[in-house]
């Protein structure tokens, strides 16, 4: 298994996209299926945004100052995703806004993934060496082991508050 930070993040993106597609393909009245998929989406996104915010973004911001505006935008996109995840986590799948809110989350995160993979990751890879990306990836794997799994967990809430309050 690669410890390259970008490879790890792309693997997360692939998993999240698969969950998004499964949600979009689910029957409109398949509340239990959608509830399970959203639960899995929330866990995947909570872990993913946590390791990016705690390891990837601060490290790249320090090592590649030219990418600071990209990183600040990514923090804000994560903040929006965190808020939507927290709201979905508290919602009942029968709520009339459950599917709509999930769709907005999917669209927002999909946009973020496209920007990262098509614009930001190539810039990071060009600026950092293979060894640095492997070291960042190894730290991400360490942090992943203790990362929050639900949007309502204290460490996840702290991450959201830090993004909000700066």
Automatic annotation (TrEMBL):
InterPro entries: Hemerythrin-like (IPR012312). Residues 147-166 are annotated as: Disordered. This is Hemerythrin domain-containing protein. It comes from the Bacteria. Signal peptide: none annotated. It comes from Kitasatospora herbaricolor. Residues 5-124 form the Hemerythrin-like domain.
């Amino acid at each position: 298994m690669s410890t390259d930070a970008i490879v790890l993040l792309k693997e997360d993106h692939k998993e999240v996209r698969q969950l998004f597609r499964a949600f979009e393909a689910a029957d409109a009245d398949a509340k239990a299926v959608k509830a399970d998929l959203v639960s899995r989406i929330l866990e995947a996104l909570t872990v993913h945004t946590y390791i990016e915010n705690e390891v990837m973004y601060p490290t790249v911001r320090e090592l590649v100052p030219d990418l600071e505006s990209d990183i600040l935008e990514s923090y804000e996109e994560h903040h929006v995703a965190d808020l939507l995840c927290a709201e979905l986590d508290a919602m009942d799948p029968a709520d009339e806004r459950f599917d709509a809110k999930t769709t907005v989350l999917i669209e927002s995160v999909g946009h973020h993934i496209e920007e990262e993979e098509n614009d930001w990751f190539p810039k990071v890879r060009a600026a950092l060496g293979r060894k640095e990306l492997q070291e960042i990836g190894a730290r991400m794997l360490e942090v992943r082991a203790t990362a929050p799994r639900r949007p309502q967990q204290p460490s996840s809430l702290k991450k959201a508050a830090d993004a909000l309050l700066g």
